[in-house]
Design a protein that fits this description.
By secondary structure, the protein is of the alpha/beta class. The chain has one domain: Metal-dependent hydrolases (TIM Barrel, Alpha-Beta Barrel). It contains 15 helices and 17 strands. The protein is globular, with a radius of gyration of 22 Å. 50% of the residues are buried. Bound molecules: zinc ion. The site of zinc ion has 4 residues, from loops.
């Protein structure tokens, strides 16, 4: 059987150094994001060519066009053949008709930033070292169950994630389509200072307590770093380029580069010199793979924008937010530049009313039976005041108002409940919360739907195949009970999920069950 590959067509303008850059950067790097390694999952094998028509729904195509009422979406095999008004459609003989009257059809959702294997406690890595590919598949299955037909893993153990990705793309398991970055280039693995450094490994810290043999730590770190770890920081730019080209040949679908550090200080320092960053950028471009950045400071964001990535991960999150007039002017000019260049942004740490209400009303006395969860909430409460909430929402609104193109990227991942409460977004739920938080901040519902579908595909060079409900596209679709273009909370009201033309039996998912977590439990549980 032939493998069907999704070809990307994202071809931004040729790279030129930004105006504030040094002459050193006047190196033309042609950006051409071509085919990624991500294969579409084949439909369940059948002997006849499957032809299915969804009839009577309102189609929200995510192209920017107005919703089409009483439409017929005709699917043949993996692809959408046509999207037409019902009364103008003659269905070919033998078409299986699914009545979708009163329903709403959107493209399948895309989460541009997940971690399929991640639960940062030392015990997790020790206990599940042999099960990471299975956990990745389970996470991708939970993702699909909750409407994510494609997810991009931006930090994880490369080989294990590739195994999971390939099992899914070969059709061995039904799960969300997975794209993989592997390491965040330059950072260390889970036991490195970048992720554990500020936590007490002697056993007293809430999240990272415990002691793990150094041999296990380095083994786990190596799974993440996979040849693209901190050793790059000591290399010449030329060596950096060669090393990352070799890394890309291992098969990741995209490259995520740490322009700033992560977790090592009150202000995250820069990681790479400008020439090294340019070498990384060019290597990704030569390999035809999307390039994205990890930044936690204003200056690292400036460095990132200057090499023109396709996507900025969490560009709105800064260890020290811009406060002075000059810093604010810099942010404004960066926002204008991001918009002008058409770079996608995946905002993170989206404030959510429901979560804030929990922080404000949390009463330890009421939660005596759940002391560990109580401890997590209490440890966060000081940083979650009403004032800080308002400040975070206002900062987010600056990004919304700027008109830069958003994708939805959540950082969500699985939970090993026996090792303590999840420390960030829970897989299967967080994408809804992020979209709702954007809506609460004033972003129009239709714009959010587009961010969660078309923009996600575009940011990864997959716009040819994914992201909209249009003839020729892969039939990744959600059938909803209510209209998400008036209220994104309606994206939770999933009636059916189609992936590559196949109706997903959501009741069976996940079929791989290494961990147990409940995406439908009310936050924080
Ligand atoms: Zn990141």
């Amino acid at each position: 059987m032939t493998r069907q590959t999704i070809h990307g067509t994202l071809r931004p303008a040729p790279w030129r150094p930004a105006t504030w850059r040094h002459d050193l950067l006047a190196v033309a790097v042609g950006i051409s994001v071509g085919a990624t390694q991500a294969d579409a999952q084949r439909p369940v094998p059948t002997n006849v060519a499957t032809r299915v028509a969804l009839v009577g729904a309102t189609v929200i195509s995510a192209t920017g066009a107005a919703p089409m009422h009483d439409a017929t979406v005709l699917i043949e095999g993996r692809r959408i053949v046509s999207v037409t008004p019902r009364n103008a459609t003659v269905l070919p003989k033998g078409t299986r008709v699914i009545d979708a009257t009163g329903k709403f059809i959107t493209p399948g959702l895309i989460d541009a930033n997940v971690h399929l294997v991640l639960m940062i406690t030392p015990e997790f890595y020790v206990k599940y070292e042999e099960r990471m590919a299975d956990i990745a598949v389970q996470s991708a299955q939970v993702a699909l169950k909750y409407g994510l037909t494609t997810v991009m893993d931006s930090w994880g153990p490369l080989d294990e994630l590739l195994k999971a990705r390939n099992r899914i793309s070969r059709g061995e398991v039904v799960a969300s389509r997975v794209l993989v970055a592997g390491n965040i280039v330059g950072l260390g693995g889970p036991f490195s200072p970048y992720f554990m450094g500020t936590y007490d490994l002697r056993g007293t810290d809430l999240r990272y307590g415990g002691w793990v043999h150094p041999m296990i730590q380095s083994r786990i770190n190596a799974m993440w770093e996979a040849g693209a770890g901190p050793e790059l920081l000591a290399m010449t730019p030329e060596e950096v380029g060669d090393t990352i080209s070799a890394y890309l040949r291992k098969g990741p679908d995209f490259l995520k580069v740490a322009v700033s550090a992560h977790g090592i200080g009150p202000v995250e320092p820069l990681m790479f010199s400008t020439p090294a960053l340019v070498a990384l950028r060019r290597a990704a471009s030569d390999a035809g793979k999307p390039f994205q950045t990890h930044t936690f400071s204003l200056e690292s964001l400036r460095e990132a924008v200057a090499v023109r990535p396709q996507l900025l991960q969490h560009p709105n999150v800064m260890s020290v937010p811009p406060t002075t007039a000059r810093q604010r002017r810099m942010l404004d000019s960066l926002l204008a530049e991001i918009k002008r260049l058409g770079i996608y942004s995946a905002p993170l740490m989206i404030p959510l009313d429901a979560q804030q209400a929990v922080y404000e009303s949390w009463n330890v006395e009421d939660r005596r039976r759940d002391p560990h969860l109580a401890a997590v909430i209490q440890s966060r409460q000081p940083g979650m005041t009403r004032e800080s909430f308002a400040a975070r929402r206002e900062a987010l609104q600056t990004w919304i108002r700027s008109g830069v193109k958003f994708v939805i990227g959540t950082d969500q991942g699985p939970e090993a409940a026996e090792l303590g409460p999840v420390v960030w977004g829970r897989m299967g739920r967080r994408h809804f919360e992020v979209m709702e938080g954007l809506q609460e901040a004033g972003m129009p519902a239709m714009d959010i739907v587009i961010a969660a579908t078309r923009h996600g595909a575009e940011a990864y060079g997959l716009a040819d195949s994914l992201g909209t409900v249009q003839a020729g596209k892969v039939a990744d679709l959600l059938v909803l009970d209510a209209d998400p273009s008036v209220d994104v909370r309606n994206l939770r009201r999933i009636h059916q999920v189609f992936k590559a033309g196949t109706l997903v039996d959501r009741t069976l998912l996940p079929t791989v069950r290494v961990l147990q977590w409940d995406p439908e439990a009310k936050w924080p549980r």
